[in-house]
């Protein structure tokens, strides 16, 4: 309410000044200034309070329509489309983009028509509808070529290249990147030059065209060295080192890898250091410098152990296994293989706790059964010694006692079994919620920001991290939390991931209007492991167009809330192909929590995982759905 009053106050004050204008031209200028001020205000709120940004822009649209200012109305419609894009509400965004296109066409503003059409193409790309995205990009290209608008073509060609890569058309992608590079060189746009060169390098590597890859990477490096982008410089050194190793130019590979190492060592990013140590191991292994290779493997193992990364622990043991096998030390090779298997088992099934628990319960039941049989035998012996008249009575009493004992023992064992699983699960849940690897990387990122004198970012990151940790610890003490609290934790978690990595993970919540977030209660942290899987196993952190959509719908028929998490990662099928038998600990913990909840509740939670490619071959990503009984 206060926000609306504030907006109306701005409009009122501005209109009051208009009343004192002396002529029609001055009045027109004043009203145009009102719309411009509202649009500027809307844009300023876009990165902080997105909902207010939409409200202010809607006021600008209403004023422009009332005053019949078509040029400002077209601009306001496009601005509102961008606002909804930032909110992740793509359907609403496209509605305003379509209206803006019509207005710009009426005004004959071809440049804005092309730009708005390109924005629609971006939405289709975000959705994974690459054919539609390509269609709109080509429309934008045609318009800009007709009017020779080079400034618009420069960022467009890399977009066309990225779409072509997504559609597995590397030849066409190469052509677009080269066109974008040529235009960027003509106007000295260094950022686009580096982008196009790096993408060309990736294409050449996939095609095993190592000479061409070296050429473009070196050209990109020469530009980056003049811009001071240390992170990109380190990546290019690593890329060059990998290519030189693959082409057996070991001395040159060592030079570039050492340069990358020197930068990453100063930044203190454990993940980046593990990557460079792994490549140094590969280089030493290829050169048959096995002592050096052993040192690099040992360093990898210590860093992985310190960071708590199961994947890197597995990679370090695999390095040991290959090294010992190559040098003929089969005893140590076998030990490394056993450790590798143990790590794999730990990650895949959390040491098979459930199977172990079942075996322990069966063993206890067998022991109880033997004791009961022994007691029965003793009773029979005593019965033979009793008087015949009392034999039946005593036998009845004994069997009744044994029956009661059996029922009590069975009930007690079931209770102990459930309590044991709950305690074991609690430990795993705490590990999942307060992941040491996540905390370590978060603190390392803060340290890097401090070293780079980015204190404002460091403070922001640390503030968000402390808020997340506090929220998780508070919620872990409750059996149920409100849906609003659950969504706040998810937002904080994804925002932290966005602060850590260069690419922004877009996310949105689509919530049924009939759901009261403060009245619906669910078990805490059900969706966080799913999002963690999307980031790690769906490789969203490596996807510049990463998107996560969380949907909530009220199911009146089942009196439940249908919860859906959808991402545009590589998909569960591709993830399984890449990871082999590797399973996600987060997924196992989620399944265990659901089992325990269903064990103690009359209303069950069910989980369903779908690879989007099975629904539409043009889509990619994973959709995880579960139905939560309404606890309101």
What CATH architecture of the domain at 478-629 would you give?
2-Layer Sandwich
Strand content: 5-15%
Shape: globular
Model regions low in confidence, pLDDT < 50 over at least 5 residues: 1-28, 346-363
Please describe the topology of this protein.
Blueprint: H1 2-19, H2 24-45, H3 50-67, H4 70-87, H5 90-107, H6 110-126, H7 130-146, H8 150-166, H9 170-186, H10 190-206, H11 210-227, H12 230-246, H13 250-267, H14 270-286, H15 290-307, H16 310-326, H17 330-349, H18 353-385, H19 388-433, H20 436-451, H21 455-475, E1 481-482, H22 483-500, E2 506-511, E3 521-522, H23 528-536, E4 547-555, E5 560-567, H24 572-579, H25 585-600, E6 606-611, E7 622-629
Parallel strand pairs: 2-4
Antiparallel strand pairs: 1-3, 4-5, 5-7, 6-7
Tell me about this structure:
It is a single chain. With about 625 residues, this protein is of the alpha+beta class. Among the domains are: about 70 residues, no CATH class; about 150 residues, Heat Shock Protein 90 (2-Layer Sandwich). The protein contains 25 helices and seven strands. The strands form two sheets. It has a five-stranded mixed β-sheet, covered by helices on one side. The chain has a two-stranded antiparallel ribbon with strand order 1-3. Strand 4 and strand 5 form a beta hairpin.
């Amino acid at each position: 309410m206060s926000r609306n009053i504030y907006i109306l106050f701005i409009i009122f004050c501005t209109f009051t000044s208009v009343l004192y204008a002396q002529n029609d031209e001055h009045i027109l200028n004043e009203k145009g200034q009102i719309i411009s001020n509202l649009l500027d205000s809307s844009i300023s709120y876009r990165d902080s309070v997105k909902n207010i940004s939409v409200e202010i822009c809607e006021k600008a649209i209403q004023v422009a329509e009332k005053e019949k200012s078509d040029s400002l109305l077209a601009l306001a419609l496009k601005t509102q489309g961008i606002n909804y894009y930032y909110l992740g509400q793509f359907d609403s965004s496209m509605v305003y983009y379509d209206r803006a296109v019509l207005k710009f066409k009426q005004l004959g503003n071809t440049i804005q028509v092309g730009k708005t059409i390109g924005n629609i193409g971006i939405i289709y790309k975000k959705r994974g509808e690459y054919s539609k995205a390509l269609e709109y990009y080509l429309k934008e290209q045609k318009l800009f070529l007709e009017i020779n608008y080079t400034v618009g073509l420069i960022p467009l060609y890399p977009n066309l290249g990225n779409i072509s890569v997504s559609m597995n058309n590397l030849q066409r992608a190469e052509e677009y990147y080269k066109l974008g590079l040529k235009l960027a060189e003509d106007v000295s746009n260094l950022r686009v030059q580096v982008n196009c060169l790096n993408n060309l390098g990736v294409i050449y590597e996939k095609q095993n065209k190592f000479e061409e890859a070296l050429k473009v990477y070196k050209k990109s490096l020469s530009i980056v060295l003049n811009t001071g982008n240390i992170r990109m410089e380190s990546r290019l050194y690593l890329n060059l080192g990998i290519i030189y190793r693959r082409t057996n130019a070991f001395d040159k590979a060592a030079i570039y890898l050492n340069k990358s190492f020197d930068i990453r060592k100063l930044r203190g990013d454990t993940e980046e250091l593990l990557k460079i140590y792994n490549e140094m191991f590969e280089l030493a292994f290829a050169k048959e410098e096995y002592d050096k290779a052993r040192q690099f493997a040992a360093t990898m193992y210590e860093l992985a152990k310190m960071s708590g990364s199961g994947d890197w622990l597995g990679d370090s043991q695999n390095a040991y296994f290959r090294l010992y096998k190559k040098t003929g030390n089969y005893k140590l090779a076998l030990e490394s293989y056993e450790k590798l298997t143990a790590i794999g088992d730990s990650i895949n099934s959390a040491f098979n706790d459930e199977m172990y628990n079942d075996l322990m319960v069966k063993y206890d039941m067998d022991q109880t059964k033997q004791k009961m049989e022994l007691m029965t035998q003793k009773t029979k012996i005593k019965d033979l010694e009793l008087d015949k008249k009392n034999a039946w009575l005593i036998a009845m009493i004994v069997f009744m006692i044994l029956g009661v004992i059996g029922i009590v023992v069975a009930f007690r064992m079931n209770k102990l079994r459930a309590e044991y699983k709950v305690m074991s699960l609690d430990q795993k849940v705490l590990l999942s919620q307060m992941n040491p690897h996540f905390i370590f990387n978060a603190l390392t990122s803060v340290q890097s920001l401090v070293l780079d004198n980015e204190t404002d970012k460091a403070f922001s990151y640390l503030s968000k991290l402390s808020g997340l940790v506090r929220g998780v610890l508070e919620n872990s003490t409750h059996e149920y939390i409100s849906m609003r609290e659950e969504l706040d934790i998810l937002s904080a978690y994804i925002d932290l991931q966005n602060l850590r990595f260069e690419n922004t993970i877009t996310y949105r919540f689509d919530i049924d209007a009939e759901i009261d977030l403060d009245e619906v209660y669910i078990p805490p942290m059900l969706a966080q492991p799913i999002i963690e899987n999307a980031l790690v196993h769906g490789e969203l952190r490596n996807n510049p167009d990463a998107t996560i959509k969380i949907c909530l719908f009220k199911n009146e028929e089942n009196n439940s809330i249908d919860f859906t998490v959808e991402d545009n990662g590589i998909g569960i099928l591709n993830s399984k192909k890449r990871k082999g038998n590797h399973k996600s600990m987060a997924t196992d913990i989620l399944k265990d929590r659901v089992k325990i909840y269903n064990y103690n509740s009359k209303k069950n939670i069910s989980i369903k995982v779908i690879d989007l490619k099975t629904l539409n071959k043009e889509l990619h990503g994973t959709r995880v759905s579960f139905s939560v009984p309404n606890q309101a």
